Amino acid sequence: MRQLAEQLKPVFEEMLQKEGFELFDIVFRKENRRWVLRIVIDNPTGYVSLKDCEFISSKIGEYLDSEDLITHSYVLEVSSPGLDRPLRGMSDYERFKGRLAKFWLNDGRVIIGRIKEVHEKSLTLESNGNDICFQADQVKKSRLEVEF
Question: What is the reported pTM?
Answer without folding.
Answer: 0.87
